Amino acid sequence: MYAQIFNLVLPAGMKLEDAVAPQLMSEHDKIQCFSGTQVTKNAGITVQGSGASAQGHITGSLTTYDYKALYQVYNLKESESANYWFINYSKDTSHDELKKVAESSETATANYDLTFTLQGNDYGITSVFITYQVIRLVINGVTRDYVVTNNASSGAVDPSGAPYTGFKPIPAQ
User: Fold this and answer.
1) What pTM was estimated for this model as a whole?
2) In the chain, at which end, N or C, are there fewer CB atoms within 10 A of the end residue's CB?
3) How many CB atoms lie within 10 A of CB 109?
């Protein structure tokens, strides 16, 4: 079974104890950001054969908050990896605009269409899950997940949630 893991992303100059200690900030000023992944389907893809590779294609939709509005806060292109968003978040010292955008965001249906290759492995992994990166914001105690459904933010994980290095998205033509 796939384990969903989220990691806390710290803003510039903030210590871990300050980010997790609720008494240091009033609740209306509190913002936390987490990096994680979400599986696209509830079924794993079988991986066999050391050195072999296979091409796959997956389509579908997810109900999520719209990441595109968050990308506009840091002037990012919709096709850029969520990693760039996390870098900009970490450098930002105010987060006022981000809070406004996040608090007014609503859920929507996000479609994905991904072609990829999977490389076989020598590590005993028998299945992988195709994922997209998630920007999780907790503002004033309210959690919102923004699944970034672009190729650059796609990936694969093994059943424990560890990244699978034999995954490679194929750019859309």
Assistant:
1) 0.85
2) C
3) 9
Phi first, then psi: what are they for 123, rounded to 5°? -105, 10
Cβ density class 148-159: b for 16+ within 10 Å, e for less: bbbbbbbbbbbe
Alpha helices in the chain (DSSP H): 16-20, 67-73, 82-91, 96-104
Residue owning tokens 């990096």: 35
Q: Write the single-letter amino acid at 154.
A: S
Higher pLDDT, 34 or 53: 34
Q: 3-class SS at 23?
A: helix
Domain spans of the chain, in order of start: 6-170
pLDDT digits (tens, 9 = 90+) for 100-144: 999 999 999 999 999 998 887 767 777 788 999 999 999 988 999
Distance CA 173, CA 159 (A): 31
